[in-house]
Fold:
Amino acid sequence: MKDTQKEKLTKLMAEEFTAIELNLYLDTHPQDKRALELYNQTVDRLYALLEEYERQYGPLSNFGLSPSSYPWQWIEEPWPWEMNFCDREDNEQCGYTKKS
Amino acid sequence: MWIYEKKLEYPAKICTTNPKLAKVVITQYGGPDGELAASLRYLTQRYTMPTGRSKAVLNDIGTEELAHMEIVATLVYNLTKDASVRDIKAAGMDGYYADHDKALYFVNGDGVPWTAAYIQSKGDPIADMHENLAAEEKARATYEYLIQLSDDPGVTETLAWLRQREIVHYQRFGETLEHLYDYYGKDHYFFMGS
Structure:
């Protein structure tokens, strides 16, 4: 996985994490209008990032939520547990050396 | 229904081949206060919650715990994947290796397999929510012990993030407990009258 892909994925992950956190907060604060507004804004940003990422690198979800080009892209590696985000420049074992 | 997302919830960092660390981190995969226990506890308790809010909290936190289980698995997998048999022996992970090679299995740090006896689903929402508050605190404490044991900066950072999530879940469960008290219209006394 190239650095640019990793950076885009990390950005998308951060956006989705924001959505998760606001989602849990809204479960116990359903009348917090500001949080709801933030949640809906996050949904818009996340959708845009997902669409851009998936168009370039293939689907992040299956079962009908994202289309695939030919041949069936879902089986492509790496799978999530094969991505190591260690970015220590002095470490070769990470398999990922941050480019300066 | 669940949909899988082909990414982690948090960018897990593993900077060393370190079976000794893997041997203890695995307790958050299949140990008493680990992520399998957490996810299954909440997802099975949700059926008998009385309100939309309490069902949502258990559904959503239970689902997030599945993502945490995947992060812990990613730590263990990457800490061991390049380890030699010599490394495994030196780390005291040879007993695990004999049964599982480097495959992921639900055990605690001493190899005790996961059991449903780790969790409870009581049918009493107040009792269940108290169990969940305790579970989050126990998981937080476990992550703190693991951080003390960790000599891998990437793993430490990832464990610190998982620890933070336990604190947020504890907060949400506390709010849900208050909500349940309101729902039942009960005062909650923390003592017994004579």
Chain B touches chain A at residues 3-17, 53, 56-57, 60-61, 64, 70, 73-74, 77-78, 82, 153-154, 168-169, 172, 175-176, 179 (CB under 8 Å). Chain B is about 60% helix and 0% strand.
